[in-house]
Design a protein that fits this description.
9 helices, SGNH_hydro, 195 residues, phosphatidylcholine lysophospholipase activity, Lipase_GDSL_AS, SGNH hydrolase-type esterase domain-containing protein, alpha/beta, Ester_Hydrolysis_Enzymes, Rossmann fold
């Protein structure tokens, strides 16, 4: 039996992960690229599809907000990423993670984006992992114990993330793989806040 392939997709936070050490027993692919926004990830999905991973772990969006992109644009891009991956990799299991907290001035926009992502994930048979309770202070600031610059994770930050990610990946593996692509998905989640 061949090893499962887990592809970690995102920006510098993903790129900085020591995935092969943290997840022995599976083949890990680090598709984190520093500075990437959701638009950048969308533009390079063909490389993800070509890798044919068994599982895709997505963390993206903080750079969009740093570039002053609005929440709607961010959410729609992540929805497009998930729809395209589900269409092109119908058998892959997907885990979408909440946008991580950063400086408290970003908190309201990140919370808003995460509400929509949590609602949308099931429509493409993706699991959703809410990292906010573990990583954020009450005011929405990234816990300063986990970051030296209110954005990137330090060793303690990665360890805190892994305490949530490891069990989430176990749950993901318990899910049966998809057998066929989803035909049509309507992007109406953003239009119905609070639903």
């Amino acid at each position: 039996m061949t090893e499962e392939t887990v592809l970690f997709l995102g920006d510098s936070i993903t790129q900085g992960g020591d995935w092969a050490t943290w997840f022995p027993g599976v083949t890990t692919l680090n598709f984190g690229v520093a500075g990437n926004s959701s638009e950048d990830v969308l533009a390079r999905l063909d490389t993800v599809v070509a890798a044919k991973p068994d599982e895709i772990v997505l963390l993206i969006g903080t750079n969009d907000l740093g570039m002053r992109r609005n929440v709607e644009q961010l959410v729609r891009n992540i929805q497009s990423i998930l729809v395209d991956l589900r269409r092109d990799l119908p058998g892959s299991r997907m885990l979408v993670q909440s946008v991580l907290p950063r400086g408290r001035e970003f908190a309201d926009r990140i919370r808003e984006a995460n509400i929509h992502l949590r609602q949308f994930a099931p429509t493409v048979h993706a699991q959703y992992l809410d990292l906010w309770p573990t990583m954020a202070l009450e005011d929405g600031e990234l816990n300063p114990a986990y970051s030296d610059d209110r954005l990137h994770l330090n060793a303690a930050g990665y360890e805190a993330w892994l305490t949530e990610l490891r069990p989430a990946l176990e749950r993901l593996r318990d899910e049966p793989p998809m057998s066929r692509p989803i035909q049509a998905i309507i992007f109406d989640e953003y239009a119905r806040p609070g639903s």
